Amino acid sequence: MSINDDDRPIKRPAHDIGCDLSMLSVDELANRIELLKTEIGRLEEEKQRKGASRAAAEGLFR
């Protein structure tokens, strides 16, 4: 076992923002759209949680 993990395979993301889409099939595009919609939902939920936490913290210091 090496000290560095440089020899581990690099996991590529399912979608790179700005990548060339011309070689993808319609099914592949639909799968990526669903993946990104799911990720957007996850981001929106986290944003709401953080906003609620921030509002609660601001309420304590007023």
Describe the 3D structure.
56% of the residues lie in helices and 0% in strands. The protein is built from 1 helix and no strands. It has one helix at residues 26-60. The longest helix has 35 residues, at 26-60.
Over all CA atoms, what is the radius of gyration? 19 Å
Q: Tell me the structural class.
A: mainly alpha
Largest sheet: none
Backbone shape: flat
Give the SSE order as H and E letters. H
Cα separation of the termini:
54 Å
Report the mean per-residue pLDDT as an integer. Answer: 86
Helix fraction bin: 55-70%
Say how many strands there are: 0
Query: Strand fraction band?
Result: under 5%
Counting DSSP H or I runs of 4 or more residues, the number of helices is: 1
- Unreliable stretches (pLDDT < 50, length at least 5) are none
Features:
about 60 residues; mainly alpha; 1 helix; about 55% helix; about 0% strand; flat
List the helices and strands and how they pair.
Blueprint: H1 26-60
Offer a concise description of the structure:
The chain has 62 residues and is mainly alpha-helical. It is 56% helix and 0% strand.
